[in-house]
Amino acid sequence: MPLALFDLDNTLLGGDSDYLWGRHLVDLGVVDAEHYERANQQFYDDYRTGQLDIDAFLRFSLAPLSQHPREQLEQWRDAFVRERIEPIMLPAAKALVEQHRSMGDTLMIITATNAFVTAPIAAGFGIDHLIATEPAIHNGRYTGEIVGPPAFREGKVERLRQWLTTHAANHAESLRGSVFYSDSINDLPLLETVEVPVAIDPDERLAAIARERGWPIRSLRD
Q1: What does the alpha-carbon distance between residue 86 and residue 209 come to, in Å, rounded to a whole number?
Q2: CA–CA separation, 163 vs 131, rounded Å?
Q3: Which of 19, 111, 113, 145 has the highest Cβ tally under 10 A?
Q4: What is the rounded average pLDDT of the residues 182-201?
């Protein structure tokens, strides 16, 4: 079955779940508001311009997970998904996912945002396969570190190939007919790997490349 791969933030969602999780923590009062919000905004701006230091960002974004029990974190996440994510799950994105489901494609979200934040979002789209940056756990608590490479830029390609090693006998056949939807210049390595790259509400740099290479450009926004 062909792979239908979806970026999450600003592709299936009308916003960025990683950034919004940071805002959620600020509003809960569990992080220093002024410092955290300023840093959160700077990292988000860096991501949008293709200049994100992923290691620095992960140290920043995963630190709060290491400071609280998982049960408490999951309660905060439940409210986060309900209040901040469900309203930005784009109807056209849901329809696109269902179109690929009806075609019998293998559905996957592949995102740099960590799996703690994104697992319930993938479930909300009814997508079973998720490749995300994996936060490390020790003795039942998050450590603030990650397991394996982050699913970012070339790391998305690496993580997908690792997944294919487990789930498919032949990489080339598995990528035949594959499609990847993304908004971000950061996803250029994976867009260049699949058979059908599609730019969704792309940033300026990705839009320019898509036009130059004749890639489809679509919008899932109203």
Answers
A1: 31
A2: 8
A3: 111
A4: 98
Of residues 9, 183, 201, 203, which has the active-site annotation? 9
Q: Which two tokens stand for residue 92?
A: 């056209």
Q: What are phi and psi of 220, to 5 degrees?
A: -110, 10
Q: Which CATH class is domain 3-218?
A: alpha beta
7, 105, 187, 201: the active-site residue: 7
pLDDT of 128-178, one tens digit each? Answer: 999 999 999 999 999 999 999 999 999 999 999 999 988 876 555 579 999
According to DSSP, the β-strands at 196-200 and 179-182 are: parallel
CA distances from 62 to 36, 43, 49, 88 (A): 12, 13, 22, 23
Q: Which residues of the chain form beta strands (DSSP E)?
A: 3-6, 106-114, 129-138, 141-147, 179-182, 196-200, 217-218
Residue 83 burial (CB count, 10 A)? 12
Active site residue 128: no
**Which sign does the torsion angle of CA 179, 155, 7, 110 carry?**
positive
